[in-house]
Amino acid sequence: MRTLTIKKGGGGNFHSGWNTATVQRAEYGVYNGSKFIDVWFDGYPESLNMRIYETRNKDGEEFAVGQLFRFANAGIVEGLEGPDGNMVVKLSDEPENLNGCTLNIYLYKDGDYFRILKQTAPTVFNNAVDTFNEDDIMFWQKKAEAYYHKYVLKSDNGVAERETMTAEIPF
To answer: What is the rounded CA–CA span in Å between residue 95 and residue 105?
Structure first.
């Protein structure tokens, strides 16, 4: 004898495009020597998560995972104005700091599956270093959509690049 739990709502009421989502949990990992962070969201199945690989600029500063924390308003410890007028943000990048934070995530179809784009956009908030309003959100969403059109849709074989996310869930 066995039991079977049937979740209400079937496979989820997902729609392509921008969705505001709350982080359920996050954790770091390593794949082929590259560090990444996986993020799971409330109301989405365990199989649908976002993966962001660490990316460094020419000065060696990591910015991809850092931007995730910035846009989630997570782990910000302090902001210092640098000599050039730019803000230097000190943050605690423990994955637990993302729990309960909200982000705008971009879902899209890749064949029969939904995927989450690795670029996110903030929600409306302000803290010691940033203030994001609706115009700012639209700016970051347009940047993410440009990435999606340039790199995900324009892959050689017309199929979305698998490196941009890890989740697979049937439509």
So the answer is: 18
CB 59 within 8 A of CB 123: no
Annotate 1-26 with b (16+ C-beta within 10 A) or e (fewer): eeeeeeeeeeeeebeeebbebbbbeb
Q: What is the pLDDT of residues 5-48, one digit of tens each?
A: 655 544 556 789 999 999 999 999 999 999 999 999 999 999 99
Confidence class for position 160, pLDDT limits 50, 70, 90: very low
| Amino acid 85: pLDDT | 86
Q: Which residues pair with 90 in a beta bridge?
A: 78
Q: What is d(CA 87, CA 152) in angstroms, rounded to the nearest whole number?
A: 31
Beta bridge partners of 2: none
**Full-model pTM:** 0.82
Distance separating alpha carbons of residues 12 and 8, to the nearest angstrom: 9
